[in-house]
Amino acid sequence: MDITLDHIMPVPLASIEHDSDSIWGNRVTLNSGKHILLNASSGKGKTTFLTTVYGLRNDYKGEIRYGEEDIQNFNPDDWTNLRMNTISAVFQDLQLFANLTVGENLLLKNRLTDTYSEYELKSFLEELEIDHKWHQKCGLLSMGQQQRVAIVRALAQPFKWLIMDEPFSHLDIENAKRCMKLIHKRSEEQKAGFVLTTLGDSHGYNYDQELKL
Amino acid sequence: MLNKLLFKNQDKKQLVVAMIGAFLGIAFLIISIHYLIKVNQFGEGSEILGPNTVIVQKKVSNSNTLGLARTDFSKSEIEKIKAKPFIDDVKPVISNNFNVSFETADPVVPRFRSDVFIQTVDPEFLDVKIPSWEWKEGDEFVPLIMPRDFVVMLNTFMSANDIKQISDDVVMSIKCKFTLSNEDDKEWVDCRIVGFTNEVSAMLVPESFMDYGNKKYSDGSDQKITQIMIQGKEGKFGEVEQLLNNRGLESKNAQVVVGRLKSIVGTLVFIVLCISIIAVFVSGLVLIQFMQLLMTRNAIEVRTLMRIGYHPNKIIRKFFIYFIKVFGVVAIMGTIAFFITKYFLDDTFISGGIYIDTDLSLWSFMALLIAYVIFSLASYFSAKKGIFNEY
Fold first, then answer.
1. SS3 letters for A125-192?
2. How far, rounded to the nearest angstrom, does the alpha carbon of residue B340 sit from its chain's CA centroid?
3. Residues of chain B found within 8 Å of residue A157, distances taken between Cβ atoms
4. For A104-115, what is the mean pLDDT?
5. For residue A61, which of A24, A18, A31, A30 has the smallest C-alpha distance?
6. N or C: which terminus of chain A carries fewer CB neighbours within 10 A?
7. Is A104 close to B9, i.e. CB distance below 8 A?
8. What is the DSSP letter of A101?
9. Closest chain B residue to A100 measured between Cα atoms?
10. Which residues touch B320 (CB under 8 Å, ≥6 apart)?
């Protein structure tokens, strides 16, 4: 499923002057299965990109299409189905449930589609070296640990697209690499694409496409 | 896990206060509806006239004796009384306009004969339906409702003659007859006692028999209506009694006492019912407000759940089910409180001489069901609104 941004201009960014190669105001297609880096400095609209494409806001001009369908036409049933099976996200503010444990946060997501067993989820955490945090409340984890939990949660579903908003901002190079490896593996398994927004660091990964804001 | 996320970190105090309020409201609602129904039923079926019906006549004063005032009712007087908003119906009591005597005609009892007066009441006013209380020419006997005082008098007569006294059942089996007559003609008609009354002083016969006698043996004089039956509306006995006083009417004391008692108790229970309805309404609002507060406190959790793929309807269902369970607990507690209260209140009423029916009343549980349905609907729509606000 390709995602097309057809002359999108979010209302809060309309007053800012954008470069000619910015995705804002141009026609851009995110081709199915591609690994895309979205590189931009602060205030250019990285979070706006995620929330707009993910259907959390509609204060924009232009048209976003999943395949041929304008996302403005989707109803709650459609969005629930898409967010369960087609598109997943890592939010910049992570949006974990602070009062639930790491395990509960992951199982709460995983039980929607029953994608993995508890053992598999733990093995993902092990790859990111936080499997010992399974019973710890998320509110008590460091930001770096929380980022890793949020990444595993986003992976705990079938998806065609994974959109990540600065997912490694609190991680060191080694941990970022581990996360990237896991994301790559899961995306390849599902033949899915992903978009990773960053402040400039490519995290040592070779992307198929780089977009600018 | 969803329950833990959405409901674990709530302030229980507010929920408990709301539940106590709802519990009291529900308990009083069931209790008051139950006793309102039972008090209204009180007295029904125990006498031939309903507890809201009185037979009245004008008080006899010196003016009546001197012929300066009338003791009979005109048609316009009856219509005026009937027009009052607290009156259901008014009908004249028809008396005999011919000579009639009553005598026993059975070897079981000694011969007893007396001139009597007979009356008939509109069958619509009878609270106890006696299937055999009908008569047509050619029937074997005239069914007759006898003043209980007559049985007492008959037994006194038997005792004085050194004869064994007789029970109600025996009285109802003895053969009797009426003698109807005028100056030119005379007729004997067999009759049999089919019931007793404390409310009417005359022997009561079917309307058709009275018509027959009045047509065939009337002395030709105009029929005067000296008694009327007044049927008041439920719980309006105070106004009926005031009307009787204002118009100088009187009735048998027992009838007034029952009506007054019912009216007082019914009014008190009705006030409790009104307070209960308000209490249920207010406590329901508090519970709904608590739900809204809970959703506001969990706004981030609700929003995040929808962002990670939970359907809004699933979250609505969680809140809805949680609160109908809360109200279910309240309803069960209220029902238990009702049964405990009923156990003691029934005894209290009986000790106080109010022999109300102790069976359960369907309507009190229907009221509970209606309150539950209304609360469930309010919960559902409130949850739906709250969740979609976060969508």
1. HHHCCCHHHCCCEHHHCCHHHHHHHHHHHHHCCCCCEEEEECCCCCCCHHHHHHHHHHHHHHHHHHCC
2. 24
3. 309
4. 94
5. A24
6. N
7. no
8. B
9. B5
10. B376, B379, B380, B383
The CA-atom distances, in angstroms, between B97 and each of A126, B179, B216, B358 are 111, 14, 10, 45
Closest partner CB to A80 (pick from B9, B300, B309): B309
Across B66-85, average pLDDT: 82
Quote helix, strand, coil % in chain B, to nearest 5: 55, 15, 30
Q: How large is the ipTM?
A: 0.91
Residue of B nearest to A158 (CA): B309
B123: helix, strand or coil: helix
Whether B168 contacts B145, CB under 8 Å:
no
Of the candidates A72, A38, A40, A77, the one whose C-alpha atom is nearest the C-alpha of residue A56 is A72
Q: Report the alpha-carbon angle B57-B59-B60, nearest 5.
A: 115
Q: Which residues in chain A have their CB less than 8 angstroms from residue B311's CB? A: 76-77, 80
The pLDDT mean for chain B works out to: 82
Query: Does the beta-carbon distance from A100 to B5 stay under 8 Å?
Result: yes
Q: Please report the pLDDT score of residue A89 as a whole number.
A: 94
Given CB atoms, is A98 within the 8 Å cutoff of chain B? Answer: no
| Residue A201 CB neighbours (<10 A) | 14
Q: Is the pLDDT of residue B259 over 70?
A: no
Q: Select from B1, B301, B311 the Cβ nearest to the Cβ of A104.
A: B1
Torsion sign, CA atoms A45, A46, A50, A56: negative
Opening angle at CA B71, ends B66 and B76, nearest 5: 130
The two structure tokens encoding residue B35:
């006793």
What pLDDT shows up at residue B45?
A: 55
B365 touches chain A (CB under 8 A): no
Cβ burial B151-183 (10 Å sphere, 16+ → b, else e): beebbeebeeeeeeebeeeebbebebbbbbbbe
Tell me whether B311 touches chain A (CB under 8 Å). yes
Which residues lie closer than 8 Å to B233 by C-beta, 6 or more apart?
A: B52, B85, B86, B87, B88
A95 → closest Cβ in B5, B9, B304: B304
- Nearest residue of A to residue B388, measured between CA atoms: A76
Pairing status of strand B53-58 against strand B227-232: antiparallel
Q: CATH no. for residue A168?
A: 3.40.50.300
> B357, B38 in Cβ contact below 8 A?
yes
C-alpha to C-alpha distance for B147 and B199, rounded to whole angstroms: 8
The structural domain count of chain A equals: 1
For residues B288 and B276, what is the distance between their CA atoms, to the nearest angstrom?
A: 18
- Give the integer Cα–Cα distance in Å for B372 and B389: 26
Q: Which range of residues forms the domain containing residue A157?
A: 3-212
**Structure confidence at residue A198 (pLDDT):** 87
pLDDT recorded at residue B127: 57
**Strands B186-197 and B249-251, how do they pair?**
unpaired
How many beta carbons lie within 10 A of that of residue A160, not counting itself?
21
In angstroms, the first-to-last Cα distance of chain B is: 21
pLDDT in tens, B326-338: 989 999 999 999 9
Q: What is the pLDDT of residues B41-59, one digit of tens each?
A: 766 655 556 667 788 888 8
